[in-house]
Structure formats: structure tokens, C-alpha cells
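Let's do one together. I've listed all components of the complex below, 402 residues spread over two lines.
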Amino acid sequence: MRRLRRDLAVAALAILLAFGGVFLFGAFWDISAIRQHPLWVYRGLGAARDALVAADAASVATPAGFEPSAEPAGAALYQVHCAQCHGGPGVAPQDFALGMMPVPPPLVAAARERPAEQIFWFIRDGLKMSGMPSWSTRMSEAEMWRITAFVEALPSLSPVAYRDLVAEGVDRLPLSEAPEALPAVPLAERGRVAMQLHACRSCHEIPGLVGRAPLAVGPPLGRVASRRYIAGVLPNTPENLARWIMDPQEVNPLSAMPDLGVDAADARAMAAYLYTLSPPRIEREGALALEME
Amino acid sequence: MRIAALVAVLAGPALGQDDAAAARAAIAEHGCGTCHVIPGIPGADGLTGPPLTRMHSQPYIAGVVPNEADLLAAFIMDPQAIDPRSAMPDLGVSGADAARIAAYLRTRR
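Okay, and this is what the predicted structure of the assembly comes out as:
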């Protein structure tokens, strides 16, 4: 009896794998953005997403005294960062967002359907395989909570009230709030995350970041610490590496490397990370380098 | 020899054994391996410049111009003509050698 059960289990698993293989590689699953999911796939994905988000967002600690808040600064932040994809009361999203799949939902509904922790979670962490980015390090936590409070207040705003708040608030950006204390993360780790959030892995192979390989839009960065030159132009020092990252065209106007808007703190952190990946040049060349200096 | 090299370059990435040997000789003669990691060249493990292992598929030469055979040969012959700020020295590589080396690097191996 035990043997029969085991055989049935193996048979069931084999059938499941075969079904999965045929489904995926037999072109039964349409991966385009123009053809919608069948309803059961759509509902299933949504249910999985909601369960996973609820589980992860449970660890988000709402600040003391948090409450929905429709005020000009929150409205302006929302208009600048969110409305191009999500639209707002009486405001359409940009064209590109309307063709996305999943299409960014109107957030006035989110406020009624999700707790504040989940809304904050979406802003801070983003969502895989959707167009929702992580705003982590691009916005301070205070700004993210301000937007969360504004989204929570959306159901109370008429389109006219929304427009008025945005108009009033847009002059107040950027907000001059007190700089946040940096999280207690080692500088190199912060650099690694900063590289992920500036999409460095899209052009360079970088140990510690998942991405396409082989990839050679830019040179591999695994041994950049050991090279004599940065980008074939600057002598290799941590300061020069940060300088290059922040403004490639200032160093070399011909360079194909784009200016990704990396600020000084992030550039320093990125350089620190890259310097952990291989022995620094002087150490490697040892006496020879000293001789030539 | 010059015509053969030109034909080899124009014919695309495929490289005959003689041309590959000639290219390797030129690479050794000009000391390219002291600055670059180069596939198929023993001892070419330099870290002054970037590795040349992906020259067969990477989109840019030295990060400044598209990776095309004639541009790569031109860069090898006179780096500062392509990028005035480049730290790569002018090693006095002849046109024929430059074409051979470019074809060698742009061959997938």
C-alpha cells in the first residue's frame, strides 16, 4: 500500500511537471502586455501577490501619531512621484503607464482596500514584475510616510480639492526636512544596494548583484579596484572612482556611460563596495609600484 | 600580407589559423598583455586596462565609439585620435598589425 502511494505521488508530480513544461514552452502562456490574462490567472496572481505583500508588510512599523493627511506638501510629492503612473482624482496617468501590465491602479481604491503599512511597503520596496519601483534611497522615509498619509486621505478629496492642494504644494518642493540618520549598514553594503538601485548591473557585470551574463556594455567591475586606471582615463583612487561615477562626462565627454544622478554619498559607498571585490592596485604590485612612484 | 589582413577583416569575425598566429605574434610583440587580459594569449593578465575577453560582442570600444572592425583597428593604431583622454599609449602598431589584432579580438573564442 505504501509503495502504491509513493508511485502515485511520483506519477502526479511527473504529470504536473509535464503540464507545466507544455504550458510554458508550448506557447500556451502569452507573455505580451497587449493580451490579457485569462481571468483565473489574473485572480490567482492577485491573490498570491496580496498574500505575499500582507506577510512582508506585517513587519512595517507605522510611526506613532500617523494619520491620513491631505496637505500641500504630500500632494506635491504625490503629483511629482506617483501621478505619472497612477494618476489622481480627475488626473490621468501618462500614456506609457496606460499600456502597462499590470496597469498601475488608481490609489483612491488602494486607500480603502489596504492598511497603511502595505501602502508604505509598496512605496519603499516596490513590486517584482510590475512597473512599481522601489523608492528606497530615492526618497527619505519621512517623505514615503508623507505620501502614504496623503494616499490614505485620497478618498476624502474631490478632484477640485486635489488640484488646489497640488498647486499650493508644488512650490514647496524640494522639502527641506532634517536629513535622516543613515541606517546602520556598512558602507560597502550600502554601496552594493545603491548600485542595484541605479541599475549599474544593467551595463556592468558586478559580483554580488544578479543580472544578465555575459554582459559587456561596460567593462566588468569585479576587479576595478586592482586596475591602474578608471575608465581608461583616471588614475585609480577611491576619490577618482567616486568622481567618475558622479559625472562621467566631466571626466571624459566622449564616454557612453550615462550620468545616473548619483549623489556624493552614494558614489562614495559604491566605490567602497567596489574596493572590497579585489585587492587594491598598490597591494597587488607591491614593491614594483613603490619603485615606479 | 596587407591584402590578406584586409580581406580577413572584411570577411568578418572568422579567422584562419595563419591570421590568428600572426595576430598573436603582433600582440606579443607590442606587449598588449602587460596591460590587458587577452583570450588565447599566455601571460596576458594585465590590469592596467580592461579585459579584452568580450571584444567579440561588446557594444563599445573603450566606452566611446561603436565596436566596429575599422574603428577598433584605428583605435589600436592611434588611441588618442579616437579618445584624446585615453591612457592607452600609442605603441606604433602598423595598419596591417592593427587590422590583424582587431580581427583576432573580434573573433569569439
